[in-house]
């Protein structure tokens, strides 16, 4: 299945997906890596990996979010994408794009949703004193970090953790979880994939 990746930064989750997709047995082929930031390290990584890349700079569209998303949608269609993985894509999407890709767009979020949607999840987990933290792969809907959960991974919060230490522990699980969740998603019956709750990495 042709799958596109949207990112804005470092691209370590994109790397995990790209590496997984090198295995001919993996059900996704990465058909495009697209960034809203032309200088995103993740975009350069994808170029080095020999994949098709596009930069569609949101700054060139001013306040016109719709025009930016139309350009993204056109690029996704042109690449023949059948599903999209958000991997550190740091702009909120409008209903135009979430509706266009409803049931076909995945996101990874660095917390065990529905706890800690939004930013600074590791700091907030430490403040809240939770003993388990982790990450979630979910289908993208209109609401930020909402949408049916496809898989989750948990890590312990250790006594002397800093936000950075916790983030690194979670990130390792993200890199394991995202390819697993994508494979699971692509090989399940779409009607039952969401909420199948089958995917737990502990
Ligand atoms: C990850 O923590 C991901 O969960 C969040 O943004 C970060 C992206 O990191 N959505 P990377 O660009 O994949 O390295």
UniProtKB/TrEMBL annotation:
One of its GO terms (cellular component) is cytosol. Residues 3-182 form the Formyl transferase N-terminal domain. N(1)-(5-phospho-beta-D-ribosyl)glycinamide binds at residues 11-13. Its EC number is 2.1.2.2. InterPro entries: Formyl_transf_N (IPR002376), Formyl_transf_N_sf (IPR036477), GART (IPR004607), GART_AS (IPR001555). NCBIfam families: PurN. This is Phosphoribosylglycinamide formyltransferase. The lineage of its organism: Bacteria, Pseudomonadati, Pseudomonadota, Alphaproteobacteria, Acetobacterales.
